[in-house]
Write a structure and sequence with these properties.
This protein is α/β, with parallel strands linked by helices. β15 and β16 form a beta hairpin. It is globular, with a radius of gyration of 25 Å. The mean pLDDT is 91.
């Protein structure tokens, strides 16, 4: 009989599910790290929330452990690389909190529009300042959603029920899906101009960090309300506070903050701001949902071998993992490359496997390519649910295999169709490491580096010197410089520049303003 340790407080229903499925579940909460190290070697599975820290030391002692299940979304308390190296599957429950978080966003919209926080404090103080708190209705106002994944789409549905007009900025939301949801897709600039309320529902990454910044916030409609129940760091909190004080922004509702636990913050003390301590998932129903889901997922894996909502690459057998590992690294890097360069609006992804890779099980490779493409602007996407996320967004995914290699022993081609255009990216394996073979349809041999610059330009003299000067002036060291161009002279060309340190948005802007440069973008791998 498989044994599972429940080391954090979960609903009693979780243990009932384990018992019903023939899995022995021991409930031992409040363990010290030393106590956990002493007993973890006895268990096949571990069910946790946020209190238990699954460190490298714990994983080293977990000689029988096959799966860690997190009742909730975040897995920051699990050492994912160490778990993957040990062949331990890490699962989460990304959708159990969706309704609860969406409802909290709606609640904060009401609270800010009617100044409930300040009005409550005033009334508790016996002031009865009825004339001071003039509110605003939600009905017939425009809600701007930045991100429309699982939670964002629920917020949209609830807002429409309140008779709000909903516009959305989400580069990965297809026109067909937007139509099904009765949403209007707009640019970020258009959303800022039109929205009476703005609610954020994106992951936090290099593409979304400070998406509402000191530069973009002043472009909002006067009197707008800003709601953030997604991730701290999506909004420049200091800039927001100044615009609230100036009267340009009417108020804000924040459940998440750049630094948590948040004991001080520029937004604290402003009566126009309603703040809550990351309560998005804090309802009895949500806690029940995630407990039930994590128990069911762990049971299904231990008794049937099926894997749901895995967040690492250990979703194949140990034997296959050894063979697939170089191809998984290639697939993820190639997907990230394509996803960062093609900025949304994708309606079709075509994957071609040629040579050695075509003889392997390519399903996990496809999943990790999709993950790499989608993760820049999609909440809770992972290797397992990436195909589902693509399908939900009406992105058609097709695969083909050809075991006959041409110029390469292995070649993986990723073609994205967006806005009526095709963008082609190719990669291969050299000395067990992933390499770029083609970018945007142009041949270009390059290794992947943690930080790179992508530059599209007209194929004319002077580019290299201009790039080198700007990077040098901004203390950015070039590690490698790779060039590619089409067959026509004086046509279009691309450059991939590997650099040793991060490149600021200001530096990227300077590169984009160089003569003959059509596009410049910083890439992260």
């Amino acid at each position: 009989m498989p044994k599972v340790l429940i080391s954090d407080k979960l609903s009693a229903q979780a243990k009932e599910i384990f018992d019903k499925n023939g899995v022995q579940a021991d409930v031992k909460t409040g363990l010290t790290p030393e106590q956990l190290l002493e007993i973890i070697g006895d268990y096949d599975g571990l069910a946790i929330r946020s209190a238990t820290k699954v460190s490298k030391a714990v994983l080293e002692k977990a000689t029988k452990l096959k799966v860690v299940g997190r009742a909730g979304i975040g897995v920051d308390n699990v050492d994912i690389p160490s778990a993957t190296a040990k062949g331990v599957i890490v699962m989460n429950t990304p959708f159990g909190n969706s309704i609860t978080t969406a409802e909290h966003a709606i609640a904060l919209m009401f609270a800010t529009a009617r100044q409930l926080g300040a009005a409550s404090a005033s009334t508790h103080a016996g002031k009865w300042e009825k004339n001071k708190f003039m509110g605003s209705e939600l009905a017939f106002k425009t809600l701007g959603l930045i991100g429309c994944g699982n939670i964002g789409s629920i917020v949209a549905d609830r807002a429409q029920g309140l008779k709000m007009k909903v516009v959305v900025y989400d580069p990965y939301l297809s026109d067909e899906k937007a139509k099904d949801l009765n949403l209007e897709k707009v640019s970020l600039e258009d959303l800022l101009k039109r929205a009476d309320f703005i609610s954020l529902h994106t992951p936090l990454n290099d593409s979304t960090r400070n998406i509402l910044s000191k530069d973009t916030l002043p472009k909002t409609k006067k009197g707008v309300y800003i709601i953030n129940c997604a991730r701290g760091g999506l909004v420049d909190e200091a800039a927001l506070a100044e615009l609230i004080k100036s009267g340009h922004i009417a108020g804000a509702g924040f459940d998440v903050f750049e630094t948590e636990p948040a004991t001080t913050n520029p937004l604290f003390g402003l009566e126009q701001v309603v703040c809550t301590p990351h309560l998005g998932a804090s309802t009895a129903e949500a806690q029940e949902n995630v407990a039930v889901q994590v128990a069911e997922q762990i049971c299904d894996f231990l008794t049937k071998g099926s894997i749901t909502n895995a967040v690492n690459v250990a979703s194949v057998s140990a034997e296959d993992a050894a063979k697939l590992n170089p191809y998984l690294k290639l697939g993820e890097s190639l997907g990230k490359l394509a996803g960062q360069i093609v900025e949304g609006g994708i309606n079709k992804i075509t994957l071609e496997y040629e040579g050695t890779v075509a003889a392997l099980n390519t399903k996990p490779i496809t999943s990790i390519i999709l993950k790499g493409i989608l993760e820049n602007f999609v909440e809770t996407v992972n290797m397992v649910n990436a195909p589902v996320v693509a399908k939900e967004r009406d992105i058609k995914v097709t695969e083909s295999k050809n075991s006959s290699a041409s110029h390469y022993e292995t070649l993986v081609t990723v073609t994205l169709e967006a806005g009526g255009q095709k963008f082609v990216f190719k990669g291969t394996i050299f000395n067990s490491e992933p390499r770029i073979a083609q970018v945007g349809g142009m041949n270009l041999e390059a290794s992947f580096s943690p930080t790179m610059l992508y530059i599209e330009n007209e194929d004319k003299p002077g580019l290299i010197g201009g790039i080198g000067k700007i990077l040098g002036d901004n203390k950015v060291n070039i590690a490698n410089f790779h060039l590619g161009r089409n067959d026509k002279k004086s046509g279009q060309a691309v450059a991939l520049v590997a650099v040793d340190n991060d490149v600021s948005a200001e530096t990227v802007k300077k590169l984009a303003e160089l003569p003959n440069v059509l596009k410049a973008k910083a890439l992260k791998f």
